[in-house]
Amino acid sequence: MSAQPTENSAPAEKVRKGDAKRDRGNRTGFTTGANAAAAAVAATLGLVEGKVPERVLCQLPNGQQTEFAIHDGRIEDNTAHAVSIKDAGDDPDATQGAHLTVDVRRIADGLGAIILKGGAGIGTVTKDGLGLEVGGPAINPVPRRNITENVKRVGETILAQGDSLEVTVSVPGGEEMARKTLNARLGILGGISILGTTGIVRPYSTAAFRASVVQAIDVAARQGQRSVVFTTGGRTEKFAMRELPELAESCFVQMGDFVKAAFQTAIKRKMTNIYIGAMVGKLTKMGQGLAVTHAWKEAVDRDLLADCAHQVGAPADLVEEIRAAETARFAAERLQALGLAIAFHRELAIRAIRSLRQQHAGPYTLTVLVCDFEGQLIVRVEQDEANLPGTQS
After folding, report:
1. Who contacts 376 (Cβ-Cβ below 8 Å, separation ≥6)?
2. Residue 261: helix, strand or coil by DSSP?
């Protein structure tokens, strides 16, 4: 998560887009999840081979095989220890330089299971709405699966004998790092989160990435395209491509957090159809009218979420819970449980359409496609449903 102090923490130095001390560029890096998986591979190989290697190949969630340097490798009794140091590329955040540390312990007669735990410096989940078990470690589903798959791959000989592998991820100084994030507000206490849906960190908040968004729209326009599909990342792009198979690949642009730059360029290049593929969090930010939806710009508007929930008939007590919650995901999950997911996301999409059309006037038609956290369609909302006054289209 991006550097930002919480209400109850001491002031922390922030590195933001536009800071003179921030390096600009487009060099990619690796997520905390990728580094944790690499350290897990090294420690597991230590148990298999009797020595922790200094370099390992790790398979990232996106399928890419990448080599990582390993530090402090050692074995004691039935436990192997390894460290992978995070390099976030040209988009450093609060976890830049973190020592992702993994201890893998061999447990005899454990039925060949892989047990994943959070150690010191890994946050504990204390609130609903994050898609993680309350009371468990803040290791997100994709990196959790990636760590497990990598350990299974290299520890197959141990698991086949019926022994289990207990994998404990820790980060020295993680609690201090977490004070520079939004974790406490999200109900993640005592450390950082292990994140990453692809394993790769791209410089979403740099000038270089903004320039790449503009360039991608220019390329589509030069190819004669008159439709463009803006998505917030890889998952929403895959979702949008499935929903809009009639459009050429060049029409799809990962705008990241750069809403204003994307819309201004599309209008300048005379795009007649603009689509947005998004999940609840970024969609809410668009409904708020934010030009940049990065986490450090502004928190999610809980009043907006609560009002949408009220409009679709959510009980009054739930509306107030949503108003007090720290994530948009909390609202989405609670309303889904009540069978109100489609109505809620439709209302939120309508708010986003109204806000975007008000801020970015032009002769185009806007369509919003909303997906869930698994990348599955929830609802598609056309501009006409927003009842816009005086729309130019």
Report:
1. 239
2. helix
Distance of CA 180 to the CA centre of its chain: 17
Q: Is the pLDDT of residue 22 over 70?
A: no
Cβ distance 343 to 312 under 8 Å?
yes
Pair 356, 285: CB distance under 8 Å: no
What CATH code is carried by the domain that includes residue 172? 3.30.2110.10
Helices (H), the chain: 32-49, 141-154, 156-160, 174-178, 183-186, 207-222, 234-243, 259-268, 280-287, 302-311, 316-324, 328-337, 341-359
| Spatial CA neighbour of 32 closest among 79, 77, 91, 97 | 97
Domain ends where: 157, 185, 201?
201
Does 225 map to a domain? yes
Beta strand 65-69 with 55-59: parallel, antiparallel or unpaired?
antiparallel
Q: Could you give the CA distance from residue 210 to residue 373 in angstroms, rounded to a whole number?
A: 25
Question: Distance between CA atoms of 58 and 346, rounded to whole angstroms?
Answer: 40
Does the residue 11 lie in any domain? no
249 contact partners, CB below 8 Å, separation of at least 6: 241
pLDDT of residue 204: 66
Helix axes 341-359, 280-287, angle to 10 degrees: 40
- CB neighbourhood size of 302 (10 A): 18
Task: Give the residue, 377 or 207, on which the prediction is more confident.
Answer: 377
- Is residue 189 predicted with pLDDT exceeding 70? yes
pLDDT of residue 184: 83
Q: Token pair of 75, please?
A: 């074995």
Q: How far is CA 211 from the centre of its chain?
A: 21
